[in-house]
Amino acid sequence: MTDYRTHTCGELNSKNNGENVLLSGWINKKRDHGNLLFIDLRDNYGITQCVIDNKNNLFKNIEKIPLETVVQFEGQVVKREKDTINKELSSGEIEIKIINFKILGTTKELPLPVFSDQEYSEEIRLKYRFLDLRRSKIHKNINLRSKVISFIRKEMENFGFLEYQTPILTSSSPEGARDFLVPSRLNPGKFYALPQAPQQFKQLIMVSGFDKYFQIAPCFRDEDARADRSPGEFYQLDIEMSFVSQKDIFNVVESLLNNIFEKFSTKKILNKKFPKITFFDSMLRYGTDKPDLRNPLEICDLTEIFTRQDVKFEIFKKLVNEGSIVRAITTKKTIGKSRSFFDNIDKWAKQEGSSGLAYFTFEKENNKIFGKGPIGKFFSPEACQEIMKISNAEIGDSIFFSCGKKKDVEKLLCLARNKIAEDLKIINENLFAFCWIVDYPMFETDEKTGKIKFSHNPFSMPQGDINKINFNKPLDIKAYQYDIVCNGIELSSGAIRNHIPELMYKLFEIAGYDKKIVDEKFSGMINALSYGAPPHGGIAPGIDRIIMLLANEKNIREVTMFPLNQNAQDLMMNAPSKVEDNQLKELNINIIKKK
Questions:
Q1: In contact, 572 and 130? CB cutoff 8 Å
Q2: What stretch of H or E contains 347?
Q3: DSSP 76
């Protein structure tokens, strides 16, 4: 009890019948029935219906109060009649008969309604975010976020982890995304960087002899916005463990995520023991390393089929001879689908910038298998049978083909797999389907420069006996790197770390960094590893993306309290903003205006 309230707006029920109470909150909604005025009073905990009749001297004054005014109501708890009980409210069994009131905070005209969750433009919502956050859905999302983070902390402590804080001002790293830089006043001409992740620090914590670290860590990356990524900053559950292998980290993370998603959602988890899919297999079967396993459709490689003499589809055969690949998606029991279903998929593929998706359906007549559709006539019964064997297709199933460069085919079929599944309505929306993507290649070829670069985390341990690794074939080296994916969303990347300085120098050399650059850019890390480092590894699931999944939201803005807009601007606080000349002078910075 405080001077402003005896109860919250989500607390009262029929057990409080007859009590005199004080409630404080915002006027969420008013309903004037002529002789009676009903007011929904809202606070962080819920809504309570308050009522006053027109015979009361206060009626006209309360009637004039605008929505979102902050008021205090004094009144008596009254049981509602059975047919007026609101089962959607925790306080729905009762209402408050108003005896007195006090205005605690006035309001200007609202730029957007609070009692409704209807869509408004991003500009309005972010400029008036404090009003947007009062709205029911997003208010619940932010409270959910707080509860999940609190739960995570308790779980991590139960697993034997301790939370440590790492620096916000650090050095710039040559790897990863673009840094946010902070000029140093005391060191003219030099800059700090805001951490893209506490990567080096959490490894140094392991080198320092601490065994199990976690942190709800703020991370800063100067990246463009996406639906599942905030521009500027985000939070992750940063984890690191000593004397562990990959499976030990998997066990902790699987237990944690199972516990979180079981507690905060009614959806089922498809596999409590998360399946492990190699990077190579994921790209082949799903066209991406972020597969949505709720979708049963899979991709197969049919390049070899187009080298057969009894396949006469010359367009694809010519492309295959020139180095293209052919991959395909099988759809089950689509024999009864209309021609428009298939043509719409083909039309969609062309809108995505491809030449389309060739297709046919497997049918059988007089014990002979044939393809029915625009290109079915180009395949012999024997070729059709071989395709069915490779693709696990049956009579009545259909198959969509794509031919081209490997990356183009993967990209198109990844999108097509989702498009076809949505059209067929075969994605189970009431599931969480987790998986591990493992065995990432240590290196990849940069498409623009043709040079070798790290494909994932440069601080990762390569797989195999380090004394037998063939460094002359860097693209064959796999790393102990792994991602965790849920419903097609990457929640996290992680790795077993390279704790051997000599090996780190060798791997960085392959990526174009000589010993001098490594010593300069990663001096703290290399120096620390030289004084006895334990084998260690970790991972960092994204808090924002976990909440997105739990809240069933498509945009990260809906689970972030004060997000930036698409141009990385805070419209509410007017950031970034210009600063005074004397501030720039102190920092030895001169702004050069573009012509």
A1: yes
A2: helix 339-351
A3: E
Distance CA 78, CA 381 (A): 78
Q: Decide if 90 contacts 44 (C-beta within 8 A).
A: no
Rounded-to-10 torsion of CA 366, 371, 372, 375? -150
| Residues 300 and 327: beta-carbon distance below 8 Å | yes
Tokens linked to 471: 């460094």
Residue 531 and residue 534: Cα distance in Å, rounded?
10
pLDDT value, residue 34 = 86
Neighbours of 76 (CB within 10 A): 15
Question: In what helix (H) or strand (E) does residue 584 lie, and over which residues does it extend?
Answer: helix 581-586
Whole-number pLDDT of residue 36: 95
CA distances from 378 to 96, 170, 482 (A): 77, 62, 42
Query: In this structure, are residues 195 and 206 in contact, taking their beta carbons and an 8 Å threshold?
Result: no
- Chain-centroid distance of CA 542 in Å reads 7
Q: For residue 226, give every residue at least 6 positions away whose Cβ sits within 8 Å of its Cβ, in sequence order, or none.
A: none
Task: Round to whole Å and give the CA distance between 2 and 4.
Answer: 5
* Residue carrying structure tokens 């860097």: 474
Q: Where are the alpha helices (DSSP H) in 325-475?
A: 339-351, 381-391, 406-424
* pLDDT tens, position by position, 31-67: 999 899 999 999 999 999 999 999 999 999 999 999 9
Helices (H), 470-540: 501-510, 515-521, 523-529
| d(C-alpha 98, C-alpha 50), whole Å | 6
Q: Residue 337 pLDDT more than 80? A: yes
Backbone φ and ψ for 381, nearest 5 degrees, come out as: -55, -40
Contact 123, 565 (CB under 8 A): yes
Q: Are 214 and 190 in contact (CB under 8 A)?
A: no
**Cβ-based neighbours of 578, under 8 Å, separated by 6 or more:** none
Residue 126 has pLDDT above 70, yes or no: yes
338: its two tokens: 């209309």
Which residue from 300, 306, 377, 309 is spatially nearest to 331, judged by alpha carbons? 300
Closest by CA position to 101, among listed 32, 30, 33, 25: 25
CA distance 50 to 113: 20
Residue 591 carries which DSSP code? P
Q: What is the pLDDT of residue 174?
A: 62
**Could you report the per-residue pLDDT of 105-122, keeping only the tens digit for each?**
999 999 999 998 888 899
The number of residues in the chain equals 595
Query: Cα(550)–Cα(148) distance, rounded to whole angstroms?
Result: 10
| Cβ count within 10 A of residue 521 | 17
> Smallest Cα–Cα separation from 461: which of 506, 493, 498?
498
Residue with tokens 């009131």: 101
Cα separations in angstroms, 14 against 75, 96, 136, 164, 312: 15, 11, 24, 46, 78
- Note the Cα 352 to chain centre separation in Å: 24
Residues 6 or more apart from 228 whose CB is under 8 A from it?
489, 544, 545, 548, 555, 556
Amino acid at site 322: E
Please say whether the beta carbons of 271 and 484 come within 8 A: no
Mind listing the pLDDT tens digit for each residue in 462-518?
A: 999 988 999 999 999 999 999 999 999 999 999 999 999 999 999 999 999 999 999
